[in-house]
Write a structure and sequence with these properties.
Elements: H1 4-22, H2 24-32, H3 49-62, H4 65-87, H5 92-113, H6 120-130, H7 138-170, H8 177-187, H9 196-205, H10 209-219, H11 223-248, H12 257-284, H13 289-299, H14 301-321, H15 326-336, H16 338-353, H17 370-390, H18 395-405
Helix pairs in contact: 1-4, 1-14, 1-15, 2-16, 3-12, 4-5, 4-11, 4-14, 5-6, 5-18, 6-11, 7-8, 7-11, 7-13, 12-14, 15-17, 16-17
Transmembrane segments: 14-31, 68-85, 97-115, 121-137, 144-166, 223-245, 265-284, 290-319, 339-357, 369-388
Domain DUF418: 245-405
InterPro entries: Bact_Transport_Assoc, DUF418
């Protein structure tokens, strides 16, 4: 019979498994198409009905929310690891910071050698700050998260509101020639089908490994730092919310099903209508690049955060409802190996799409790329549980843990469970 602790960890693992699978719904565009296609369907990937339907579904339910769920669970897991370290008198600071240092090394290797969309270095740097707030109350963590997310939204929201206002006056009949010139210069920095970066991406990622590596180092070398500036406030806000939810008991059985259900309903009631309106606005604008970027970085964040919380509650409800099912067990196994599955996804997808592999970069439509997503999901579910039936950790989890502790950890499963 499963203990309460086992059930609690299974819920957290299954939620993490759903997150690592779900994030591929969004990352697949970055794996398979020029960078700007991630924001704008006009850039690449097709504007046929199936492509627009896929884009619309992602905008309505998943874009930003899967990344948010991943960060939410990172904060929850960090809280759990630090609590365990304190319980074992190992020193929360030493354990946590050594884990973050090792994670940063993996992140840099992943970014420069495999795929520059890496979030591991991003999480490692921001994760160091979590040590400072681990003793905060749930209310304090939530307040700090709200402040961070509000400031992030305000900063980017004002930036793009200003750009949208300038667009309105620079495209008016009485606009001066100088104003038009400035507007055209500004628009060259936004995603568009005529952007010179598209041809550059196609040439870079359709080459052999040396070509891809050279291109990444020449044009993407500063991405880890840029990501901290562009998304740092949002990511840290999610991490603090994850810590708060961990402390409050959402992932550990502390909430009864009625409370989880009420929380989910309220969050969806607040976020779904707003996200539907925002998504329709983007379509009605003709996929105006200023509107798309404003939504991506600023205006939609409050509602994306609330929907992310709704998604987390929904997953918890489903996992607890079907806790004995084989599929939940496999999703939980994928979650226990989330680090490995995240990195393996990058390795598999870049091999499929980049020139040193099958060379499909830019050749597959927005709707069709999801066939690769479903295949990768099947692979995660197929291999994670059999691996963990034989080994204590996933391969990369073992490497991360061994590097953080500066000694090889026991790998083959005997009669003990992973701590």
């Amino acid at each position: 019979m499963a203990t309460a602790a086992t059930e609690r960890f299974a819920t957290l693992d299954a939620t993490r498994g759903a997150a690592v699978m779900g994030i591929l719904l969004i990352n697949i565009i970055s794996f398979s198409m020029p960078e700007q296609a991630y924001v704008s369907p006009r850039v690449w990937g097709g504007l046929d009905l199936p492509d627009i339907v896929v884009w619309t579904i992602n905008q309505l339910f998943f874009e930003g929310r899967m990344r948010g769920l991943f960060a939410l669970l990172f904060g929850a897991s960090a809280m759990l690891v630090m609590a365990r370290a304190e319980a074992k008198s190992e020193g929360a600071a030493r354990v946590h910071l050594s884990r973050m240092a090792a994670l940063a090394l993996f992140g840099l290797a992943h970014c420069y050698l495999v795929w520059e969309g890496d979030v591991l270095f991003h999480y490692a740097v921001l994760g160091c700050l979590l040590l400072l707030v681990r003793g905060w109350s749930v209310k304090a963590l939530v307040r700090a998260a709200i402040v961070l997310l509000a400031l992030h939204t305000l900063y980017w929201g004002v930036q793009f509101a200003g750009a949208l206002y300038f667009q309105s006056i620079a495209t008016a009949p009485d606009a001066t020639a100088e104003m038009v010139r400035q507007y055209q210069a500004m628009m060259r920095g936004f995603p568009g089908p005529d952007s010179p970066t598209i041809a550059r991406d196609l040439a870079g990622y359709r080459g052999d490994y040396a070509t891809v590596l050279d291109y990444r180092l020449e044009h993407r070398a500063t991405i880890p730092v840029q990501l901290l500036f562009i998304l740092g406030g949002e990511t840290l806000g999610y991490m603090l919310l994850g810590m708060a939810l961990m402390k409050s008991g959402l992932f550990t059985g502390g909430w009864d099903r009625a409370r989880v259900r009420r929380f989910m309903i309220v969050c969806y009631a607040v976020s779904l209508p707003a996200m539907a309106a925002i998504t329709l606005w983007q379509i009605a604008s003709g996929f105006d690049p200023i509107v798309l970027m404003g939504v991506f970085l600023g205006w939609s964040i409050p509602f994306r955060v609330v929907m992310t919380l709704a998604h987390a509650a929904l997953i918890v409800l489903l996992v607890t409802r079907f806790s004995e099912s084989a599929i939940v067990a496999r999703i939980a196994a994928a979650g226990r190996m989330a680090f490995t599955n995240y990195l393996m996804t990058s390795i598999v997808m870049t091999t499929i799409f980049y020139g040193y592999g099958l060379g499909l970069f830019g050749h597959v439509g927005r709707a069709e790329v999801y066939l690769f997503v479903f295949a990768m999901w099947a692979l995660m579910l197929a291999w994670s549980k059999p691996w963990l039936d034989r080994f204590v950790y996933g391969p990369f989890e073992w490497a991360w843990r061994s590097l953080a502790r500066l000694r090889p950890q026991p790998m083959r499963r005997t009669n003990h469970l992973a701590s």
